[in-house]
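hiii so my PI (J.) wants the whole complex modelled not just the main chain, which honestly fair. so below is everything: two entries, each one labled with what it is. i double checked the lines twice but i was tired so who knows lol
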Amino acid sequence: NAGVTQTPKFRILKIGQSMTLQCTQDMNHNYMYWYRQDPGMGLKLIYYSVGAGITDKGEVPNGYNVSRSTTEDFPLRLELAAPSQTSVYFCASITGSGNTIYFGEGSWLTVV
Amino acid sequence: QKEVEQNSGPLSVPEGAIASLNCTYSDRGSQSFFWYRQYSGKSPELIMFIYSNGDKEDGRFTAQLNKASQYVSLLIRDSQPSDSATYLCAVKEGDNFNKFYFGSGTKLNVKP
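here's the output for the full assembly
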């Protein structure tokens, strides 16, 4: 089982560049999430989706966009990258019972 | 804004001792509470969850919940060096079935 797969694992961006973090899950989960984790901090919710075609903002959505065209995929778009977006990004999905979050392995992003 | 507070630590305990990790939350409507373990450079992994007042035991781990005090804790008995990690408390939002808020985590060091 692949679970939740994120790409890329590491990326260095220059200020002002844009990129997309890819996330795919093969568990047919309706709920998917993007979190960011700054050093020594907990996870902050960026965006989430309750199903294909439905997305909503989390705690820290500024500077990001998402789409959910299929159940499997939930890409996160960074527009005009800023140093403040240097972080580790985790994609996650949840079971039908809503109690077990499956995390991807994380994407380490540095903006210089 | 939903707040989940944890002491950042580090909490140092000798091998074989009991480690006690604490978490408070601001949303009185929260229904479910989770403890995740995160090793450095890895994604969080679920240890256990609790939704009823009182204690819930799973092997060496015991979660304790007091909704009146808005307090949840995790006890780790017979602590092992392999338990050294950051422990994240997470709370499921009461009025939104599948939104989770995370604390900043407590770093635990178990000394041999």
